[in-house]
Structures are given as C-alpha cells and as structure tokens.
Amino acid sequence: MAFERASGLLLHVTSLPGRFGCGTMGKEAAGFISFLAAGGQSYWQVLPLGPVCSHWHFSPYSSPSAFAGNELLVDPEELHSRGWVSAEEMRECEAGPGSDFADLQAVAARKAELLARAASRFFEDSGQFSADAFARFCGEQSHWLGDYSLFRALADHFRTFQWTTWPADIACRREGAVARWQNQLQPAIRLRQFEQFLFFEQWRAMKNIANSRGIRIIGDIPFYVNFESADAWSHPEIFQLDKASGLPAAVAGVPPDYFSSSGQRWGNPLYRWQQDGEPHAGTTAWWTYRIRHLLGLVDVLRIDHFRGFDSYWAIPASELTAVKGQWRP
Description:
41% of the residues lie in helices and 12% in strands.
C-alpha cells in the first residue's frame, strides 16, 4: 500500500457519544466519519476491537480472544430495525440522560440482556436470508469462532476464565469432553456466535461507509494475548507453558528503565517461537492467520510492542517483578 502525507484522529468506538452508555457502530459512528471527512481527514484510528470484560477492567488490550469482536459495540437501533428487539427493549438499553461517563459494567449488563432477546427471536423467526447469512458467517470464521464460543460458554458455566481450574477433561480439550460440552451448552454457544455475527456485520457496514467517504481505519493489535483466553486454551502448543501445571513457565514484560526501577511484569504467556532449533510452525501459522484476519477488518494495522518479533523479555513466572527477566531472541 502506498502512503501519502495524511492526518486523522484516534478515538476508540466506545468513546463516541450516544444513548446506550458507550459508543456503538450505529449513527454516532457514521456521524463521526462525516466529521472526519468534512475536516479533510484521511484516517480514523481505533483501539483493539476484541471483547472486553470486567475481569480485566474492560481494557481493550486485555481480551478473551485475539479474533472476536466486542459485542458492546453492537448498535441496538439496528437490532430494532431488523425486528429482533422491541422499541421498549431498546429504550431499556439506554444509559439515561445527564452523564458523559461510560459505565461499562452497566452497559455490559444491559447489552447482554438485549442481545439474548435478539438471539432468541433470530433463531426462532429468522428468515431464510438471515439464516443463510449466519451459516455463511460461521463457516467463514470457523478457524476461531467455535473455540471462542465454547470457551465463553464454559467460562460462564464455571464462572471463571481460568481454564486450568475447569475439569481436566475439558481443560485439556479431550475429544469426548469437547463434544459433550458443545452439546450441553449449545444455547450459550449459539448466543456467542450470534453476537459475533452481529459485530462483524455491523463493523463491515461501518467500514464501508468510512471507505466511501475517503476515510481509512487504522486498527490496533496487542502483541501478547491473555492466558485466560480462548487462544491459550485452544492452542496451548504455541505458548511456553509448564508441562505439569499447564501454566506459563515464564511471562511477558519489559525490563527496568527510567520509568520504573522494577520494570513491568505484564504476566502474558510467551510464544513458543522455536521447537528443536526450528521455527515453530504452529506459532507462525497462528500469527499469519491473526494478521490476515485483522487486515480483513481494517485498512492499516498497528502492532503494539512489535519489537517482540525480534527479541522479548522473559520473566520467570514465580517472580513478582520484571527485574530478573532476560532477553531472548
């Protein structure tokens, strides 16, 4: 892609003003795109788009998935226009007047109820076109969607994202256990799939509006993922995990510097870049798919802490600070 001198603004979607407690991919996003175009801007930069949770204080840099989208960004007005929620249910999702503060805890509770109602009607009354679109989406995103949806359903069922505390058969993804839990949690799995169907459908519509106005979207990709994520649970082979416990043997961070005498201990699992002296094929394939996947959602991609592709600071998991880490290639 050829770049010319251009400017834009950084504003995450959640920061857009609106009726529903945090920004959505609805008319507020379209209004912001018009604002950028009228100001002669060329770029809209956003933060990572993954799901956020109270467990990680709703930080977009901490997510249970490197591939899924944030369902809090789904526009309730679009659900109403499709007949999946009533006008009254849509109003119940509003935050109320008089506050510029995004209470994401409250937003998440209201949005979860609204999306559950929408999903129920979608699966009961969906027309053939919508049903085909949903099936096509699930097929296109099968590389990650099934694992993510099951992971979220299991996390809700066991009330924890810490998958190593789940029963050993499903924590280790034994074949019979996966099939059994898929059957037992099917309604919860379908809800998570439906949420992702809505996110991707609305995001692509919003991006089309932006591109039609000459605005390109800059996305953001955190270098590391959470251990308590669908990624680590479904692909433990690409991370440096202890064989006995399944927990990270060493964790990510940065060494002491002018800003912190003890460095920063982030705690994310480290990637298994090599195996037997050769590049680890699974890690390379996962990263390739991750970048390709996100470039399907944005026009330009920023990789946060991309220096980790060259060398990374490995901290023994037992250490409480980053001081005793070491650089590894």
